[in-house]
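Data availability (excerpt). All sequences and predicted token strings are deposited with the supplementary files. A representative entry, DUF2238 domain-containing protein, is shown inline so that the format can be inspected without opening the archive.
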Amino acid sequence: MIERFLRPPSGTAEWLADALRVVGLLSLFVAGFVWSPTDAGILAFTLPALVLPRFLGVRAGFDILFSVSVLVAAWSNVIDLYRTVPGWDLLVHFECTGVLAVMLYVFAGRLRIIPDVVGTRPPARTPIVLATIIGLAISALWEMVEWAGYTFITDEIFVEYADTIGDMAAGGLGALVGGLIATRVHLLE
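Structure token line:
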């Protein structure tokens, strides 16, 4: 994994993917100076996610989609799109959880937790089932983080039962769609 991470980018798409990682790092500082430490903390969560595709050696297009998704999800919180744009919350939960679930599916393969996905075509049901399970787990974990943030840090975080269930359902559906797409698209270099 280290060799893949340290390999210089080749081609425009890989340079763009690396530029998005720089945008993520700069976002942390911008949010910290222009908005609040809480907002900087939200963007700090993106940094490990933004470098993960580089370690895993996913195709540049998937890397870009993943990185944009993570940055949009984080910045949507900072600039309050989840509260001000109707349906935005569900759309982001659907899309971002879908790409996150597929990325974690690849990660599990690279760690040999599941059969490695490199150079093989697993049965179609494998990424569908595993990405959906991963997506539902991510959704539950995220909602717990929101609850903990609301309970212990700030009451500015919106937590409500219907919102929580809706977010988890949208995330699970997005992960299912991500798993379906993963059966058709080659994700790794």
